[in-house]
Amino acid sequence: MLRGARCVKNKQTASRILDVTRTTQHAVRILDVGAWNLELSGLSSTFVKIPLDVLYVCRDDARMPKNRVELTGAEWPVMKVIWEIEPCTAPAVREILAKSTGWTYSTVRTLMDRMTVKGLLKAKKEGKVTIYNSAVTQGEAQHGELFYTVKHAFNGAFAPLVQCLLESNDLDENELAKIEALIQSGKNRRKSRR
Q1: Helix count (H) and strand count (E) of the chain?
Q2: What phi and psi, each to the nearest 5 degrees, are found at residue 84?
Q3: 22-37 core/surface letters (b: 16 or more CB in 10 A; e: else)
């Protein structure tokens, strides 16, 4: 039984879920945000008992980049410090993060070693000291975070993200003008490619 929203990748998966929900007397509303329409018999007469149960047909397979950088909440502050002061050592990072996080040296060192294994950092041993550099750019990390949010919070659709931003009242006129200029620039680039 569905609770909340569920993202499916194709018509077959949607059909199976609908068959299960019909046999359990649990109705589902379908929102098609992909490039194709669902053509399931009886779909238009489906009664929605619980309006929050939504089956989204997502388009994230085609539009979401496969090899994107996804940082955890603990990795973000470490990366921000490293981008500012690289090359750096774990004690230097710990010293900067100590006030805001309260992390000990061993916590920072363990986290940085794990980030190296994940490919987020590069480590080079110089005597008894390990020197760290970032293996990903700040832009790559921001791009990954944006696509993570679009995929998980907005089911792969960009329009609801923009709508959420516009309705939030957190954007001033200057930021709105910048966003409009970026959208127009993107449109112009697409036209010139054709």
Answers
A1: 8, 5
A2: -80, -40
A3: eeeeebbbbeebbeee
**pTM > 0.85: yes or no:** no
DSSP output for 30-78:
EEE-SSS----TTGGG---SSTT-EEEE--HHHHS-SS-----TTHHHH
Give one DSSP letter per residue of 137-149, joined into a string: -HHHHHHHHHHHH
* Torsional class of 174: left (φ above 0), alpha (ψ -120 to 50), beta (otherwise): alpha
Give the pLDDT confidence of 55-78 residue by residue, as tens digits: 444 444 445 445 678 899 999 999
The mean predicted confidence, pLDDT, of the chain is 75
- Pick left, alpha or beta for residue 42 (phi over 0 → left; psi -120 to 50 → alpha; otherwise beta): left
Is 12 within 8 Å of 21 (Cβ atoms)? no
The token pair that represents 75 in the structure block: 């990795």
